[in-house]
């Protein structure tokens, strides 16, 4: 796994061994950022369920002003710190080693993020409580692009009831990215 573009281009990133995280492949990450790219320069980026930090680091490398990484697994947090240090992007990143909903509450009251990305463990439906929280949060406004990576069969029919509209959906062999705005 590597950084695809920007300041840290071609640098290899560490991942934690085992099955606790599921890194986004370079091919899918490249497709995601081809879609995401107009939003990235100068943005405030929130990477939820960060894993190795690859998505937030890619955003920083491509010109995001600031990225917050949220990950509760201590091994993954060590990996994120090492990846930020190796890519020399530490100054632009903040790591919160806690549960995602706890982290969102701790960030409440700050400026809204421009981009929020979440890649929760598949088939555990952890994205729904996060989207429910963000629907009434100051962390996301009508300009915030929220991207959810989830299993291909995950149902998102409830998002309109929460006040979101589907901007786009991109499907791959086993998963998909759903792009939402308030």
UniProtKB/TrEMBL annotation:
Its EC number is 2.1.1.171. It comes from the Bacteria. InterPro entries: RNA_MeTrfase_RsmD, SAM-dependent_MTases_sf. GO terms for molecular function: 16S rRNA (guanine(966)-N(2))-methyltransferase activity. Keywords: Methyltransferase, Transferase. This is Ribosomal RNA small subunit methyltransferase D. It comes from Blautia luti.
């Amino acid at each position: 796994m590597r950084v695809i573009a920007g300041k840290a281009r071609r640098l290899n990133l560490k991942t934690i061994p085992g099955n606790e995280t599921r890194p986004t492949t370079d091919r899918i990450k490249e497709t995601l950022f081809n879609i995401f790219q107009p939003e990235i320069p100068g943005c405030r980026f929130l990477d939820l369920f960060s894993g190795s930090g690859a998505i937030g680091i890619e955003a920083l490398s491509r010109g995001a002003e600031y990225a917050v990484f949220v990950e509760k697994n201590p091994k993954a947090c060590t990996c994120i710190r090492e990846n930020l240090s190796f890519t020399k992007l530490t100054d632009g990143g903040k790591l919160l080693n806690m549960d995602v909903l706890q982290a969102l509450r701790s960030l409440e009251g700050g400026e809204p993020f421009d981009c929020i990305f979440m890649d929760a463990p598949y088939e555990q439906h952890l994205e729904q409580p996060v989207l429910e929280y963000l629907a009434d949060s100051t962390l996301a406004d009508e300009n915030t692009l929220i991207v959810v990576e989830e299993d291909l069969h995950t149902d998102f029919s409830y998002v309109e009831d929460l006040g979101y509209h589907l901007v786009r959906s991109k499907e791959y062999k086993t998963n998909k990215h759903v792009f939402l705005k308030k």
